[in-house]
Amino acid sequence: MRDQTNDFAFKIATANGTGSASANGLIMQAIFRMGVPVTGKNLFPSNIQGLPTWYEIRVSKHGYTARTPIFDLMVALNPATYAKDVAEVRSGGWLMYDSTWPLHDELIRDDVTYIGVPLAQLCNENFKGVRERILMKNIAYAGALSALLGIDPEIILELTKEKYSRKPALLDSNQKAIDLGRDYVHANYDCPLPIRLQPMDATKDSILIDGNTSASLGCLYAGATVGAWYPITPATSLMEGFKGFCQKYRVDPETKQNRYAILQAEDELSAIGMVIGASWAGARAFTPTAGPGISLMGEFLGLAYYAEIPAVVFDVQRTGPSTGMPTRTQQGDLMSCAYASHGDTKHICLFPSDPREAFEMAVAAFDLAERFQTPVIVLSDLDIGMNDWMIPKLTWDDRYRPDRGKVLSAEELDAAKNFARYLDVDGDGIPYRTLPGVHPKGSYFTRGSGHSKMGAYTEDSDEYQEVIDRIARKVDSAADAVPSPVILHNKGARMGIVTVGACHAACVEAMDLMAADGLPLDYLRVRGFPFGDEVRQFLEEHEVNFVVEQNRDGQLRSLLMLETGVPRSRMQSILYYAGFPLSAHHVVTGVTSKLGVLV
Amino acid sequence: MRDQTNDFAFKIATANGTGSASANGLIMQAIFRMGVPVTGKNLFPSNIQGLPTWYEIRVSKHGYTARTPIFDLMVALNPATYAKDVAEVRSGGWLMYDSTWPLHDELIRDDVTYIGVPLAQLCNENFKGVRERILMKNIAYAGALSALLGIDPEIILELTKEKYSRKPALLDSNQKAIDLGRDYVHANYDCPLPIRLQPMDATKDSILIDGNTSASLGCLYAGATVGAWYPITPATSLMEGFKGFCQKYRVDPETKQNRYAILQAEDELSAIGMVIGASWAGARAFTPTAGPGISLMGEFLGLAYYAEIPAVVFDVQRTGPSTGMPTRTQQGDLMSCAYASHGDTKHICLFPSDPREAFEMAVAAFDLAERFQTPVIVLSDLDIGMNDWMIPKLTWDDRYRPDRGKVLSAEELDAAKNFARYLDVDGDGIPYRTLPGVHPKGSYFTRGSGHSKMGAYTEDSDEYQEVIDRIARKVDSAADAVPSPVILHNKGARMGIVTVGACHAACVEAMDLMAADGLPLDYLRVRGFPFGDEVRQFLEEHEVNFVVEQNRDGQLRSLLMLETGVPRSRMQSILYYAGFPLSAHHVVTGVTSKLGVLV
Amino acid sequence: MSYLAKPKVHHPSLKKNALGLTRRDYEGSLSTLCAGCGHDSITAAIVQAFWELEIEPYKVAKFSGIGCSSKTPAYFLREAHGFNSVHGRMPSIAAGAGAANRDLIMIGVSGDGDSLSIGLGQLCHAIRRNVNLMYVLENNGVYGLTKGQFSASADPGSTSKRGEVNSMSAIDGALMALTLGATFVARCFSGDKAQLIPILKAGLVHNGFAFIDVISPCVTFNDHEGSTKSYAYTREHQIELVQADFVPVREEIEAEYAPGSVQRVQLHDGSHLNFRKVAEDYDATDRDKSYAYIRKCDEAGEVATGLLFIDPDTKDMMEQAQAVPGPLTSLRFEDLCPGSEALEKLQMRFR
Amino acid sequence: MSYLAKPKVHHPSLKKNALGLTRRDYEGSLSTLCAGCGHDSITAAIVQAFWELEIEPYKVAKFSGIGCSSKTPAYFLREAHGFNSVHGRMPSIAAGAGAANRDLIMIGVSGDGDSLSIGLGQLCHAIRRNVNLMYVLENNGVYGLTKGQFSASADPGSTSKRGEVNSMSAIDGALMALTLGATFVARCFSGDKAQLIPILKAGLVHNGFAFIDVISPCVTFNDHEGSTKSYAYTREHQIELVQADFVPVREEIEAEYAPGSVQRVQLHDGSHLNFRKVAEDYDATDRDKSYAYIRKCDEAGEVATGLLFIDPDTKDMMEQAQAVPGPLTSLRFEDLCPGSEALEKLQMRFR
Ligand SMILES: Cc1ncc(C[n+]2csc(CCOP(=O)(O)OP(=O)(O)O)c2C)c(N)n1
Ligand SMILES: Cc1ncc(C[n+]2csc(CCOP(=O)(O)OP(=O)(O)O)c2C)c(N)n1
Ligand code: SF4
Ligand code: SF4
Ligand SMILES: [Mg+2]
Ligand SMILES: [Mg+2]
Predict the structure, then answer these.
(1) Cys staple from A573: which of A349, A554, A589, C179, with CB 3.0 to 4.6 Å?
(2) Are D187 and D305 within 8 A, CB to CB?
(3) Residue C73 · residue C100 · CB < 8 Å
């Protein structure tokens, strides 16, 4: 039997709104502090209280961060989902439950070891009040788990202290609850289980962070001053994160006045309008949203494209179409974003794969938007945005200065003979911009209706065409400016895997597995749109390209066909769109089943 | 010199809001009544009064209806555009102008014959009041033209009588103005010109009609009862046409009550919402709009797709992106409509090529929408919708009955054991529907959030996936139900032309020209989306397919690549997107220039 | 959620209405809202109102947008069609459904975010159109489902759970409705069933758009000190301007009111309302007086409740459209399609 | 259109303001609207107001949506940036621009379709936010650019050019603004420059959202018998409740008013307004009184005009946001980016 020290996964089933989140976080963080690589996936309902919610924790000494669908231990604390949860434990695994009440016979599997802990009973005996008893029950299981998995009690203590430093009462009760759970388990089972933790030194240069928080840090560091938004899951925490950081780093020490403005709009049409207005006036402005918001922003995105106004949008994708499953993940907005709005349009898109890239691409988004004077959409997703990922510490180069693009200053305008807003002066397809309130010579009339290169209203065919042809050239030229694809070549590989965004973690793990099975594969992950030529080259170098993505219709493959001209016949879609994060398992079975057909 | 009897084109340049529209209409109709094939293209500004406007009339004994950019005669009545207009006359052609004032020397071309008619002077001498003088000036030129082109005076008289039968005063002044123009020309020039009319018998089974009017007739005949809209050029006249017909054919003779409801919504989001609500409740409902409206309808279209609710939308396309040129034509919304809304979606689209198909496809749209329980978008354009086309008379089969699709009646529900909204009972991917207010057993909860095949809310991966997978199958199966492509095979043809919508007229004319030059081509025009397999076959049968369309980015070619898998290398884009109707000239030069490159 | 479907057990004990239906027959699936959420009380009141009005559930159509409040139509009238549409756009869906079938008894449930932020335009225009819809705005001053951000009905000066102070002026749905010419305007408190039920019944019978703003506390995100939409605050500051007793058609009018103290308003189906004036000199049929009165209460820091205004004889959307009686959906195709001859004839126009 | 650019000839004769600029310097390109369109008169009044206020054109930002009215920003202040956005969404563009650079002097021009139909939600929320924008609604009761359909401000009973009767209730922008807590509400008639110009000046100086509803007849589609937005009708039914005289900062207050007859309101920049009460007992600083008064005029079939309400000391959007003074756009990057050390430190939170 393989040694599972620091290499296992477990799942905690509770009901939401009962405080289990903090218990799960505590366990995650404790493992992390032991120096052991760990990731957590939160599977929660679109509801505030009382519905089933799961938290999956994967411990991987190899540092794999993808979701795994195989669970060694199930912490089944929600009777509403017992049956489902019992079924999900791997054969030979463990199941911990609240033994205050007996388990129904039909829930008993003889290939699973059951660990009963009378959590409710323990808490009822030791705490007063319904609410506290419920909350403490969820801390108690953390204690029990810490014993079963061999989590260092010191670390747990230290973490609880940090958390409740300012609330001694809470600290005591939490500590008590943890002990209750731990002591009971120690007294009744021999600990730890074969799935156990051992201190490592693999996390000291890393952090545990979600992608919405890191993206909001990116906005802060990029110098964004205007944030406009309308709340929507799973994008909400991005703006809330930004607000939090601004309150800490953007308040004038003397006057206590703010160096930012966050506008909670009445809807997404208004939010993107505010971003466009602010960018037009010269601020770095952004709005976070999700699929429904992208649909509503369509008209305005076309205006920004045609009137050539920077705008930064974060689409934290969730499961569509329509309202879909707001608390599930997907990569379903690729096409909608790339060609948003009626008429001929194309938008620069960035595709982070984890919270670190979410941070970096947030910064890049503002530079690209201002340099190319057009909307830039960062396509994150719920998995990146709301789950806790272990990533290398974020770093910042203090020499960084924003690329504001071709904006004429008052001095330049003074010197200039005259100014034409949409003239391709430098032959790079990018005209010069002016900001309102700066200089009389800079004035022009911005419009989404037909305009000439001089910026005048026109219904003249040639004048109209000259401008939109240049805009097409301009946006295509961004292919060389967006983050280049990640490409990995493996010895003996004849086929390739092509993917995007959060699929990365699962793909690289899957490639290791398949390489071990004698199937080495090359790898390409697109990071920006329009695609650079390396993408076409890679696709053409490989007879077979497995295009891995999280949507039903193979939208990445569609973009690849449209933009590179590589025929569909070279691309095999491997699709997973059930709403949970992708696992290596899906990729491996996807590839092997395709191979079955191919050979 | 070739005989130009019944085979020429002329253009009338005036300012809008001066009544020239009725004069132009009068001339068109007179030629038509002489039995001579004729088409008119109205090039008007996005403005109400005083800006340049042109009307192009093409007379073609061969029955060609496409725009021609070569003009034998220019009727230059707008000093603001003299220079431009003079330049547009073909060498050896004629130019008629108001000789009340002399022409500037720089406007004199010695390869053009100038015909001065002192219209203003004539009218000032014969009419009183500024307004009347302006209006009559525009009738007078009709008289002058009728002499120059040899239009039958009797027919002119008859038409004016019909028009002003109820306004004798107007009849007299109009008649007088016409005579003024005609008499002056007869007295001063020898008429008619070599570009002249001769009675034919080629129009008796035809009508002159615009596509918005014919589409509204289609809605009337299909039994649509609810029309919701928000005014937008060039779609406005579609709903106004529907209203007019309803007032004539949909009013209860006794009670004078309406058998329809037209709702002028506050915007396009509301208009499509009303259509979805009305269709959900069992009415045939539709909304006409243009590009900006399509962008705004994105979120709702995704709801209708996922909740499987019929909806009929007319997108009368105009030049984009953004507000673009509202009074110019384009085919720029193909991609936006085919994949409207975030998440994985695909919508049935129909592509009429002229007012006749606009009529037929309006009817088909309702049948398809109800049969497949999904939105259907009819992509017309400004050229089809607002220009007067000569088409064969519309016909109607009285045996037609609406295809309401799988809607369960009260009786059926009574008999049924139970009802599950999204169950694939028949294995064709199409579930059964019920209407509100019909039967208790039929009740279900419609939602755009995750739902199971039973219609229950779900966040369960398998239940979610089962439904969206079926929907994908369902919509793809519509490929066999949409109007099949028009395919023409020509002897010796090795290459093909593939096109869509209003490009038809120009393409068939171009094919004649090229065949005459020894370059026979095969032809395919798509009429519905998703594409049937014939489309793929045609593309594969031809080494080279010239894809002719009116947008910048080759959107039809994109759809063909995505849906048929045929590689881009087989498709050569021929694009015209300057905003005017396509001419055979563009197609021929497009093809030959590509051939230059190819060989 | 599927596995939450409520067992439809029949207690023979339960009281039946004239249709032989018990309250249970007017319920829906089990609520998934937080324990104590004001919305659940409103759901209970809606169940009661329909049961008392003896309406056959299947004749009803339920509409909503997106939000905790918008989930509630799933929790009542199991046997009625429901339409949980997209955020803020329910009014247009209802208007369309009402145009197709004017015989539907339509109820819409929305929240303050759904109605006053993203949905403000549609709400205002549905009021203008006088869509025959009872519109229940479950007003808690926050976006519940997205975890407690201020909504447009949050009062200036009130604080969020995290202690932030709201600086923007609040939109008072009732005043706005009055200004837009609404024909039925009420405000209630989810905690006051005695007041809510008769108003719901009147709203369902009203011919036109019945706007009912119900203060409905969010126990999870807006029930704290500093909130002006909490249970405590509302209980303390609610004042009832009028008490409306709904009297169905067939019931006799008991003259048990002190003369003059009651105003009688006839509804278009023959039933009527007896207004017992709590604030005398209040006239619920005078738009301007009620507006002024509500403003006075605002100034005094009071939350005016009751059936604040009604104009019983107005034309609803379909009457304005001069449409034939009955559903357009039940017209015979023959009466809709003019046929081939007519087509032949009308085309003379185009020659 | 390009070839319509107006020759910028300077007549030495033309009067110059303190900046040495003539009215011509405040004009734009030649109007392409119909001869006689009310919108052109408003443009002229705007030119005059800016000239009299001696504002440097380039410090102004002009915003509009889509419509004939929304074209007009091209016809004034040639030297100011203009933004002709999309239909009904101008308020959000202006709010964003104002957030980026609060020193911009912002004017928005819109139509009744742009503002009260598709744009209603954005307008209402811009009012709530108190965006520092002068918002001129050129109100003609129709959609001009799309050829004369009824807009939401068309009065019930009024008829279209084709004779159709409007059945829906009208949205009165002024009443709505008052209800939403607007801090500056006026109604004027495009034909009455004497009234319009001082109000425009006050609106530009006002700190916050200045809502100015200007009846602006559409000669082409809504100037007929049966229209209540025609020149004739408006001239006949307009009544002026208050006359506002705008007194710039440096000018002395002449005490030439009969004592008591005038109400003096100080604006935040030190300039002030003298209200000469036409209707005595009218108080332009009392929201409820003005609301009631306007309603009374409505009942009497009168169109109430004048600077109907003003609350001079309110916080605009950026004050509510507690933002630093001056444009956010002029902050130094060093003051925006916390730098690498801070990043290193703050990440301790994530371990
Ligand atoms: C287009 C769109 N934007 C945002 C959201 C996210 N969202 C869901 S509910 C909601 C607000 C709900 O607030 P309210 O209407 O007051 O309902 P409550 O939950 O308070 O009852 C928001 C912003 C969405 N579903 N759709
Ligand atoms: C999204 C969208 N829908 C519709 C239109 C068409 N449209 C242009 S202007 C207009 C109405 C203008 O009316 P109003 O705002 O009153 O301006 P007016 O022309 O009367 O001055 C409409 C509906 C559009 N441009 N965009
Ligand atoms: S979050 Fe608030 S509104 Fe939503 S269910 Fe809970 S209590 Fe009710
Ligand atoms: S149509 Fe009406 S609003 Fe438009 S320019 Fe002409 S008169 Fe003015
Ligand atoms: Mg709420
Ligand atoms: Mg208007």
Answers:
(1) A554
(2) yes
(3) no
Residues of C in contact with D176 (CB under 8 A): 176, 179-180
Burial call B24-33: b when 16+ CB within 10 Å, e when fewer: bbbbbbbbbb
C72 pocket-lining for ligand 1 (C-beta < 6 Å): no
pLDDT for A258-311, tens place per residue?
Answer: 999 999 999 999 999 999 999 999 999 999 999 999 999 999 999 999 999 999
Do A322 and B299 make contact, defined as CB atoms within 8 angstroms? yes
Question: Is there an atom of ligand 2 within 6 Å of D40 CB?
Answer: no
* DSSP annotation of B569: G
Q: Which residues surround ligand 5, an ion (CB under 5 A)?
A: C 111-113, 140
Could you list the beta-strand ranges (E) of chain D.
60-64, 81-84, 105-111, 133-139, 142-143, 149-150, 184-189, 210-215, 238-240, 242-247, 262-266, 272-277, 303-310
* Burial of A104: CB neighbours in 10 Å, binned 0-12, 13-18, 19+: exposed
Burial of residue B538 (CB within 10 Å: 0-12, 13-18, 19+) is buried
Ligand 4: centre distance to CA C18 (Å):
60
Q: How many CB atoms lie within 10 A of CB A401?
A: 10
Number of Cα atoms under 13 Å in the Cβ half of residue C318: 26
CA angle D280, D283, D288 (to 5 degrees): 125
What are the two backbone dihedrals, phi and then psi, of residue A237, each rounded to the nearest 5 degrees?
-70, -15
- DSSP character string of A99-162: TTSPPPGGG--TTSEEEEE-HHHHHHHH--SHHHHHHHHHHHHHHHHHHHHT--HHHHHHHHHH
Residues C32/A50, Cβ–Cβ less than 8 Å: yes
Contact C175 D179 (CB under 8 A): yes
The secondary element (H helix, E strand) that includes residue C276 is strand C272-277
Instruction: Report the residue of chain C nearest B261, measured CA to CA.
Output: C321
Closest chain D residue to the Cα of A410, Cα to Cα = D58
Tell me which amino acid residue C154 is. Answer: A
Window 208-237 of D, Cβ < 8 Å to A: none
Does any CB of chain A come closer than 8 Å to the CB of residue B551?
yes
Under DSSP, the state recorded for A531 is P
Place of tokens 């132009």: B24
B106-111 contact pairs (CB < 8 A, 24+) = B107/B82, B107/B83
Place of tokens 């050029």: B233
Is a pLDDT exceeding 80 seen at residue A597?
Answer: no
At residue D342, φ and ψ (nearest 5 deg) are -55, -40
Q: Which H or E element spans position B14?
A: strand B7-15
Residues A474, A374: contact at Cβ < 8 Å?
Answer: yes
ipTM of the complex: 0.97
Pocket probe mutation, ligand 1, options C137, C145, C149, C153, max atoms within 8 Å of Cβ: C145
What is the CA(C215)–ligand 3 centre distance, in A?
Answer: 13
Q: DSSP letter string over D206-248? A: SSS-EEEEEE---TTTS-STT-SSSHHHHHHHEEESEEEEEE-
Between chains, do B292 and D86 touch, taking CB under 8 Å as contact? yes
Instruction: Give the pLDDT confidence of C227-279 residue by residue, as tens digits.
Output: 999 999 999 999 998 888 888 887 755 545 665 678 888 888 888 888 887 87
- Radius of gyration, alpha carbons of chain D: 21
| Ligand 4 within 6 A of CB of D144 | yes
CA distance D129 to chain A (A): 9
Return residues 151-190 of C near B (CB < 8 Å). Answer: none
User: Is D33 touching ligand 4 by the criterion CB < 6 Å?
Assistant: yes
Beta bridge partners of A198: none
Distance CA B86, CA C310 (A): 68
Please count the residue pairs, one from chain A and one from chain D, whose beta carbons lie less than 8 angstroms apart.
235
Q: For ligand 2, atom 13, which residue shows the shortest CA distance?
A: D143
